[in-house]
Amino acid sequence: MYTREITGTISKYDMTDLKDGGYAVFTVDSDTGPVEDARPVSGRLTVSSMRCYATSAYMVLRFDSNDGNVMAYTDNLSGDNSIHSETFGVHEPVMALMAAKPETVYLCIEATSGTSNKANFREGCTISLEIDYTLPQELLTYTDPVLIAGTTNVKAAHMTELQTNINRQREALGYPAYTFTTIRAGYTSLADWTAHVEELRAAIDQIGAEHDAWIPIPVNCPNVMVLIQLREAVEAMLP
User: Fold this and answer.
1) What is the bridge-based pairing of β-strands 83-89 and 39-48?
2) What average pLDDT values come out for the chain (239 residues) when binned by 10 residues?
């Protein structure tokens, strides 16, 4: 898992009436830079030295313009917050931000209730926007790229290559490597075939990856169709 951090300071604000679209503009001071092929996962927005007088409000983070695409919502913003930090899920505009290097970002605060819907930022207010993301991993090339039922003989290499590629996909998604049982050509017994396949499937299912229903595993009889389905599931782990 990687993190892109964008930090800045408030350069302009107009928060006198939140219901009328008050907003603040923060100028980006530092930025780790755009990242190609990034897959955002989650993010955090931290605003220091601010006050919110609304009894119930939320912040809306926008990219490019005050009325542009919404990047993220934060909830439960209320009261006098010297520092407010919020974790947010990923919206489509966050992906656009990952491929851009912004100079300014808009931070809007909108009140949902309360008689005094006002907010302001103290002098020297700083903002930190962190976006966690993953990068696609290059999969190991299979010894036999094409498997043919009734023709291809199942090898130990077919299984170890799946172990490697599953862990590369898990790493790209921010998960730790799965601990597989060692498979060695000429040493691993056919009697362990079912257990090894179950391990491969478990490593995929453990992270909630979507795939077709697993087909039955022939007992102690290596099967090409089982391998083909596993390869397809590995590819689908990180589209």
Assistant:
1) antiparallel
2) 81 52 70 80 76 56 52 49 64 69 67 52 74 79 90 92 92 87 88 93 90 90 93 84
Per-residue pLDDT reduced to its tens digit, 63-94: 554 444 545 545 445 445 556 666 766 666 67
Between CA 127 and CA 233 the distance in angstroms is: 41
CA–CA gap between residue 109 and residue 111 (Å, rounded): 7
Which residues in the chain are classed under CATH 2.60.120? 2-134
pLDDT at 220: 80
β pairing state of 50-52 and 56-63: unpaired
> 129: helix, coil or strand?
strand
DSSP 77: B
Architecture of domain 2-134: Sandwich (2.60)
DSSP helix/strand/coil, 221 = coil
Q: Record the tokens describing residue 202, joined without a space.
A: 């478990």
